[in-house]
Description:
With 402 residues, this protein is of the alpha+beta class. It has three domains: 38-128, CATH 2.40.50.140; 142-229, CATH 2.40.50.140; 231-400, no CATH class. The chain has eight helices and 22 strands. A hairpin with a 5-residue loop joins strand 15 (206-213) and strand 16 (219-228). Helix 3 packs across helix 8 (393-400) and helix 4 crosses helix 5 (323-329). It is globular and about 70 Å long. It starts with 10 loop residues before the first strand and ends with a helix.
Amino acid sequence: MLDSRSKFVLNSRPGSLVSIGSVFSLTVILVVIASAQVAAPTVEKAVGTAKAISGNVITLTSDAGASTEVRVDDSTRIVRVAPGQKDLKDAVPLQLKDLQVADRMLVRGKLADDGKSMVAISVIVIKEEDIAARQQREMQDWQKRGVGGLVTAVDAGNGTVTISIVGKTLAVHTSKDTVVRRYSPDSVKFDDAQQSAIGEVKAGDQLRARGAKSEDGGEMTAEEIVFGSFRNIAGTVISADVTNHSLSIQDLLTKKPVTLKITGDSQLRSLPPTVAQRIAMRLKGGTPGAGQSGGPNPPAEAKASAEHAPGAGGARSGGSPDFQQMLNRMPAVALSDLQKGNAVIVVATEGTAGSQPSAITLLTGVEPILTAAPDSSRAAMLLSPWNLGGGGGDAAAAGANP
């Protein structure tokens, strides 16, 4: 995939944010390149990823999941372009033997009557390793120049969004060149994010931006923004349905049950007791470790993750590490491990009228936190910035203090 998210995002993982913007941009770039060529009326285009190569036949799978069998003849022109390249001026000729599974391709050719096979006239290729290298560069740039937080105000007329990060505010300025994307209401994958506009951002959304900060750190000129609306739930488990991959929770704030989908992308983790206690102390207004003679240090894996684990945001010089990185190193739990009465904090998608919300991040071991915040609203919001790699707030600080 090419830039963006990313998921993210980057999944980056924005956790799974994933590498930001890859599939969407690749499709656009390849179509722009192809449109510059003179094509006969009968020539069709197919964009996708090579899923199999057998002899001179390539199985090309589109981003929507449709497959096309592409036959490459001796007369087929095959060229390689770099991610982001917008014409064929610097394209490098390739042979069929140079193509590999997972390469991204745009094929021009004559479609068979069945609509499932094609004789290729030309194949424009972006190699998998080139995509991976670009994703790595983007992830590093998001770590270096990315910020994330909760939206507190939007001035659509001036293209400015104000976000809250660890008790501070940042004014994010956009221009006509800023790439703005919105997460799907039922997915946190950047691949599923859609083009959007600054006017669609609203207070309470989670937003991540990449760009140049002002010298005082109070403003940013954004090159790229990804945002979405997510649900923050603190509650107790009612039941776990392993067969149907769902989890029912009693929301402590609304006093109503909520059913969540647990997908392959859902991140289920157990919060170490020492970290949970430190967060609880901060919720109570105390200092972690106060009253504890040489209070316990956070787990070594949590510290290591803040320094070395991949993820959006990275450790901040002189500040708290990104809790998403620490979260990645915490013990994973399975849906079957969740028992009735277990306390959990969850970040989930909004869901749609016909679809249940999906869990993005779920934490167990949070009993001390819910005890420290009996109304549950503040406890639920604690997790909010983490799934987009934001500052981590009290939780990150609690996990980082010696």
